Amino acid sequence: MKSLCDIPYLVPDSSEEPGSFAFVRKHDIHCGVDIYLPEGTPIYFISTGIVVQVTQFTGEAVGTPWWNDTWAVYVYNAQEGTTMVYGELYPPNLYVGQGVDSGALCGHVAKVLRVMKGRPMSMLHFEMYSGLVTRSVEWLHGEAMPRSLLNPTKTLLSGSLYI
């Protein structure tokens, strides 16, 4: 498996790290993994597949006006039966139905946070699902983990240049 980017990065894998999978936040439970990277960092696909969705991910138009406008790319790998979501990117130059290869350019990391919170303000948000998915789920307090949602931490660690 290819790496997400060309620079070393940390994959948060502790329930005490805000960017980790299943971290309990103020209003919900984190459905992905946030990998803090400099704004503009090129992100590469870590597996092959078909683009099944390119959509705005954060910002006023999608009900999160406290974050900047960012986009996400959903890629379905039929062989593995999984969908990977590469989120919090600048608008990528991709289209639904496009085939992508591992190592091909997905997009560039966007500045998502509007207000400094003591952590980096730009990151890749990565989610993973079983089956074909074209919309991210919401995991609310008191609910079981959504059925199709997968923990992507091991997948990210296996292909990362993490430090």
What does this structure look like?
By secondary structure, the chain is mainly β. The chain has one domain (33-154): Distorted Sandwich (Glucose Permease (Domain IIA)). Helices cover 4% and strands 32% of the residues. The chain has 1 helix and 10 strands; from the N terminus they run ββββββββββα. The strands form 2 sheets. Strands 1, 3, 4, 5, 6, 8, 9 and 10 form an 8-stranded antiparallel β-sheet that branches. Strands 2-7 form a two-stranded antiparallel sheet. Strand 4 (70-77) and strand 5 (82-89) form a beta hairpin. The radius of gyration is 14 Å and the shape is globular. The model has no long low-confidence stretch (mean pLDDT 91).
In CATH, the architecture is: Distorted Sandwich
Q: What's the CATH C level?
A: Mainly Beta
Q: Give me the count of strands.
A: 10
Compute the number of structural domains. 1
Seen as an oligomer or otherwise, the chain set is single chain
Largest sheet: 8 strands, antiparallel
Low-confidence stretches: none
Separation of the first and last Cα atoms: 17 Å
Write the CATH fold name.
Answer: Glucose Permease (Domain IIA)
Helix-strand category: mainly beta
What overall geometry do the principal axes of the alpha carbons give? globular
List the helices and strands and how they pair.
Elements lengths: L32 E4 L5 E3 L4 E10 L11 E8 L4 E8 L9 E2 L4 E4 L1 E2 L10 E9 L18 E2 L2 H7 L4
Antiparallel strand pairs: 1-9, 2-7, 3-4, 3-6, 4-5, 5-9, 8-9, 9-10
